[in-house]
Design a protein that fits this description.
Elements: E1 3-7, H1 17-29, E2 34-38, H2 47-60, E3 65-68, H3 79-84, H4 88-94, E4 101-103, E5 107-111, H5 127-138, E6 145-149, H6 169-179, E7 183-186, E8 193-196, H7 197-200, E9 209-212, E10 228-238, E11 241-252, E12 257-268, H8 273-280
Parallel strand pairs: 1-2, 2-3, 5-6, 6-7, 7-9
Antiparallel strand pairs: 1-10, 4-5, 8-9, 10-11, 11-12
Helix pairs in contact: 2-4, 5-6
Length: 282
C-alpha cells in the first residue's frame, strides 16, 4: 500500500516550535514511503530559514522527499536576487531540481513549479508544463496512484480564494485528467479540503480529486483552520477497482498533538476509462 504525507506552507521563520515537534512525532509514528512539501517552505526565502527547513526534513527520516517551491520561497525584497537567481537558497538546501518526480511501483508523484519571479503571489502553469506532466502520466502503470503537486490551488471552496487559483488551472485539470491523474495536491491558501473535480468539470475524462493542505507548522493560521497535514494512502488495484483515502490530521492546542480530523474516501477510475468511454459512444 502506497502512503505519503503532504506537508505544506511550513513558512519557516514563523514556525511554532511545539507544532514542529508534534509533527515530527506524528510522522515517526506512521513512517511513509514519501514526504511531499508542496511549497512555501520558508517565510522570506532566507538561507537560515531554508536551513531550518532542511534540518526539519532530515529529522523526519523519510526514505524519500519531494519538494517544490512556493511564492514565499523566492526573495520578495531582494530584487536583484529575485531577478537573477530567485531559487538560489531553495536549491542550496533542497537541490537543483525544481520539478522533481517520484516513481515507485505503487506511486507516481510529479512536482510542478508554479512560481514565477514576476508574480509575487499568483501561480501559473504553462502549456509546456501541462504537456510534460501529461506525457509522464501517460507512461504510468495501472498499479500506481498518480499524483500531481502544485503550490497554488486548482480548486477553491470560498469566494475569497478565487483570486488565488492557479493561472492555467482549467486547461491543466482537463489535460491531466485525460492523461490519467488521480489527485492534484496543493497548498497556498492555508485551508484544507478535498473536492471531486469531476463534479465541477462535467466533461473530464475520469475521476480527478483536488486535495488541499493547511499550513503545517506556521503561526500564520487561517481563521477556523489550525495547523494540519494530509496523509494519502492508496489501496492499490483489486478486482478491477482502484481507491485511495486522504486523512486530514489537525494540531490540537489542548493535547499538543496532531489528531485525525477527517477521512475522505476517493473512488478512482481505472487506467483506460477514457478510451472505454470513447468506444461506448460508437
Amino acid at each position: 500500500m502506497a502512503m505519503l504525507w503532504q506537508i505544506s506552507d511550513l513558512h519557516f521563520g514563523t514556525e511554532r516550535p511545539e507544532v514542529v515537534s508534534a509533527l515530527e512525532a506524528l510522522i515517526h509514528s506512521m513512517p511513509p514511503e514519501l514526504v511531499v512539501l508542496s511549497g512555501d517552505i520558508t517565510q522570506r526565502a532566507r538561507r537560515s530559514q531554508f536551513q531550518a527547513a532542511r534540518s526539519f526534513v532530515d529529522r523526519l527520516g523519510a526514505p524519500a522527499t519531494l519538494v517544490i517551491p512556493g511564492n514565499h520561497d523566492i526573495p520578495l525584497f531582494n530584487l536583484i536576487s529575485r531577478a537573477l537567481n530567485p531559487y538560489a537558497n531553495h536549491c542550496r538546501s533542497f537541490g537543483a531540481e525544481l520539478e522533481p518526480v517520484y516513481d515507485s511501483p505503487t506511486l507516481l508523484v510529479i512536482g510542478v513549479n508554479t512560481t514565477r519571479r514576476w508574480r509575487h503571489v499568483d501561480g501559473e502553469v504553462s502549456a509546456y508544463q501541462r504537456q510534460r506532466v501529461a506525457q509522464r502520466l501517460n507512461r504510468a502503470s495501472a498499479e500506481q496512484l498518480r499524483i500531481v503537486v502544485t503550490h497554488q490551488p486548482v480548486a477553491v471552496t470560498c469566494e475569497e480564494d478565487v483570486t488565488n487559483l492557479l493561472h492555467g488551472h482549467k486547461a491543466a485539470v482537463h489535460e491531466w485528467s485525460s492523461a490519467g491523474a488521480d489527485i492534484i495536491l496543493g497548498g497556498h491558501i492555508h485551508l484544507p479540503f478535498v473536492v471531486p473535480l469531476h463534479k465541477h468539470y462535467p466533461n473530464l475524462a475520469r475521476r480527478l480529486w483536488a486535495a488541499q493542505a493547511g499550513t503545517a507548522v506556521s503561526s500564520r493560521i487561517r481563521r477556523g483552520a489550525n495547523n494540519s497535514v494530509n496523509l494519502v494512502r492508496s489501496t492499490g488495484l483489486s478486482n478491477g477497482t482502484r481507491a485511495a483515502i486522504v486523512q486530514r490530521w489537525d494540531y490540537s492546542d489542548t493535547t499538543r498533538m496532531f489528531t485525525l480530523k477527517h477521512t475522505y474516501s476517493l473512488q478512482l477510475d481505472c487506467r483506460h476509462l477514457q478510451n472505454d468511454r470513447k468506444r461506448s459512444n460508437f
